[in-house]
Design goal:
single chain
Length: 51
């Protein structure tokens, strides 16, 4: 169950970024930030800087 939560959390946060970029409903920097958050969060957790 936990793995499913983690996968859903990361993928569910990653997908809106490109969709918002394609739809052009937010500035490019906002869509890029939403897209970049999941990988940066994982990197932070591995590095020991994230919570």
């Amino acid at each position: 169950m936990f793995l499913l939560f983690v996968l859903g959390n990361l993928v569910g946060t990653l997908l809106p970024g490109p969709a918002l970029l394609r739809a052009r409903v937010v500035p490019i920097w906002a869509a890029a930030g939403i897209t970049a958050w999941p990988p940066l969060h994982v990197i932070g957790l591995v590095a020991g800087t994230g919570r």
